[in-house]
């Protein structure tokens, strides 16, 4: 298996922006990175191709010809490219894949989308603006909010932001565990 982290690339240089855009231009490469980020470690090529084929077709299990197409394109094209850049570590013989050190460079360009189709940045920005309006409305005497008071209103929004952060950390916990190890 290819070496991981700093041992793999002694220059420790970031991936060039044009290469990152080339990686993200292909949906199967994006789905590969997303799938590996959501898991807890090494995944087999068979499992990865099954998951990507299922995402592409919306069928479970996906049709055999689609699974084979995904398997072949990952094995012959996409995984060797991601491996050469240090984004994933691909054992060509054992057909095992895991996320690698340079995936962090690509992550900067992959905005995480919630299941509702908005980015986490948009979600937090909307929640912050809504909190600001609610606190200002409370201070201006808007009947229901004024009766509650600005401090409890702000506290509710801070609790919502805190709960959202906990949820986001929990759903991406394996990514953080890998970063710490």
Description of the molecule:
With 181 residues, this protein is mainly alpha-helical. It folds into 2 domains: 5-107, Arc Repressor Mutant, subunit A, CATH 1.10.10; 120-180. Helices cover 67% and strands 6% of the residues. The chain is built from 10 helices and 3 strands. It has helices spanning 5-8, 17-24, 27-38, 45-57, 64-85, 103-107, 120-140, 143-148, 150-171, 173-180, and strands spanning 43-44, 88-91, 96-99. The protein has a 3-stranded antiparallel sheet. A hairpin with a 4-residue loop joins strand 2 and strand 3 (96-99). Helix 7 (120-140) runs antiparallel to helix 9 (150-171). The longest helix is centred in the middle third of the chain and has 22 residues, at 64-85. The two termini are 18 Å apart.
For the CA atoms, what is the radius of gyration? Answer: 21 Å
Give the class-level CATH name of the largest domain: Mainly Alpha
Q: What general form does the structure show?
A: elongated
The total domain count is 2
The side-by-side strand order for the widest beta sheet comes to: 1-3-2
Classify the secondary structure makeup into a structural class: mainly alpha
Assess the beta-strand content as a share of residues. Answer: 5-15%
How is the topology of this model organized?
Blueprint: H1 5-8, H2 17-24, H3 27-38, E1 43-44, H4 45-57, H5 64-85, E2 88-91, E3 96-99, H6 103-107, H7 120-140, H8 143-148, H9 150-171, H10 173-180
Antiparallel strand pairs: 1-3, 2-3
Concise structural overview:
With 181 residues, the protein is mostly helical. The chain has helices at 5-8, 17-24, 27-38, 45-57, 64-85, 103-107, 120-140, 143-148, 150-171, 173-180; strands at 43-44, 88-91, 96-99. Strands 1-3-2 form a three-stranded antiparallel β-sheet.
